[in-house]
Amino acid sequence: MISSRSALLGRSVVNALLRSPSGAVQKQAVRRGHAWSYRTAAPPHSKGVIIGSYMVGGFMWWWILWHLWHEPEHLTGEFPYPDPSKWTNAELGIPPDDADE
């Protein structure tokens, strides 16, 4: 009960403080976290953002190339590739030479 009454009292105090002397409610802009551009080019990124993006991209490529070099089994598989010279014609689906066509 006390919390609901204090919430009502708090809203009343905030509304009273936001009212101008003429009685109109003043509104404040919220969420000014980014630049706003309408039909214009976006503002350039800061130097920190550019350097950070290059660092993250460089780390990503290092991670990919490092693991491709040291663990190629991710692409080639973990089992040895069979020797194709040991395959028979029957396994490959090649008919014998003396077969009639």
Automatic annotation (TrEMBL):
This is Uncharacterized protein. The keyword Ubl conjugation does not apply. PANTHER family: NADH DEHYDROGENASE [UBIQUINONE] 1 BETA SUBCOMPLEX SUBUNIT 2, MITOCHONDRIAL, NADH-UBIQUINONE OXIDOREDUCTASE AGGG SUBUNIT. Accessory subunit of the mitochondrial membrane respiratory chain NADH dehydrogenase (Complex I), that is believed not to be involved in catalysis. Complex I functions in the transfer of electrons from NADH to the respiratory chain. The immediate electron acceptor for the enzyme is believed to be ubiquinone. The keyword Iron does not apply. Keywords: Electron transport, Membrane, Mitochondrion, Mitochondrion inner membrane, Respiratory chain, Transit peptide, Transport. Belongs to the complex I NDUFB2 subunit family.
